[in-house]
Amino acid sequence: MIKITRGTKDILEDEIPTWQWILDSAKNVFTKSNYVEIKTPIFEATELFQRGVGDSTDIVNKEMYTFCVGGADKTATSITLRPENTAGVVRAYIEHNLNRQSPPQKFWYFGPMFRYERPQAGRQRQFHQVGVEVFGCYEPIADAEVISCAVNFLKTLGLDDLTLELNSLGCKNCKNDYRESLKKALKPYLDDLCDDCKMRYEKNPLRILDCKNEDCQKIFMKPDIKDVIYNDYICDDCKSHFSELLGYLDELNIKYKINKLLVRGLDYYTRTVFEIKSESLGAQSALCGGGRYDGLVEMLGGAPTGAIGFAMGVERLYNLVKKIEKEKLDYFIVSNDPKHALVLANKLRLEGKSAEIDYQNRKFIKQLEKASKCAHRAIILGEDEIKGNFYSVKDLNSGVQEKIEDFRDLI
After folding, report:
1. pTM here?
2. Which residues have a Cβ under 8 Å from the Cβ of 95 and sit 6 or more positions away?
3. pLDDT mean across residues, the chain
4. CA nearest neighbour of 138 among 266, 257, 304, 18
5. 270 and 362 share a domain?
6. What angle, rounded to 10 degrees, do the helices at 140-156 and 16-32 form?
7. Neighbours of 104 (CB within 10 A)
8. Full strand arrangement of the beta sheet holding 329-334
């Protein structure tokens, strides 16, 4: 028997109603804030992620599914299954000249992503994300709306034990100053860092702060390292931007905690970064992550554009939300005349009613047993009903049965 590939998961009948509810909730919340849905391909040119996500990230270095397609080596094209969706949405924004429309441009998406990593609870090699992206606005009010949109969506799903953590990485100049100061402070401890952090030290030292290795985290708590981390390197403009954002969040009654160690795992972030966590998830507590990426559109060939977004892992959401039961059918047709049963079922379906029939021509009692499990009402279509041109309809909840002569009374 061929089994499912490790790190992937079938989403079966009992789970689909909850997945569909999450998707419907996302569409409802986001469209009310004037976000429009966008769908991008599940694979893109590998260079898009190398340039956009950053070649110092774990995603690009370790976790991408990359393939060469298209003939001999000289003509082969390297493509990658998308490990995240921001880069693809930015590519679409540039390619279709969406910057020509009145800003801001606001998008939401839902779909599968792919990363080669160790499967664990709520984390698979094929997983799903729901997220939003906003282009054309540098002002902190956009940050506040994006964060409030994420919070509103999670609350719609019934999740209340949420903690919002925030930080500002500053603009490009701020990040460069911070990066150099952090490298200088970490240099005496370089031999004690994990192998990943040693590589990050050269390529992007801020990513060291995202390390989950306990030994590395102990180094971050040393006084000389803490002095650098908690020293405010961001410029006056970035300070003002962050302060205004906090003011908006206060007005929205969104509680938050400033976390100076929060840098997020992607190279493109500038200024605001944030995570929303749920204690119910334990060690893997992050439900939502996002932030500003004001330089990414320009880096990928577009005009300078302010941008911000977030993404959420749907598998983690699924593990936390209430489960939705499969909706029962309107009718189950109990009959030993398959032609009449099929014709009636088809008429009902065309009128917008859900209906099912028995394909095995079993005894009525067996059909009624099945009907009671999957439908609200049973239409009994025996010889008397067919000859008399009427329907015997049984309410499977109350047990009450009635005679209906007009088909229109069924719809």
Report:
1. 0.87
2. none
3. 90
4. 304
5. no
6. 150
7. 17
8. 355-357, 329-334, 375-380, 391-395, 401-404
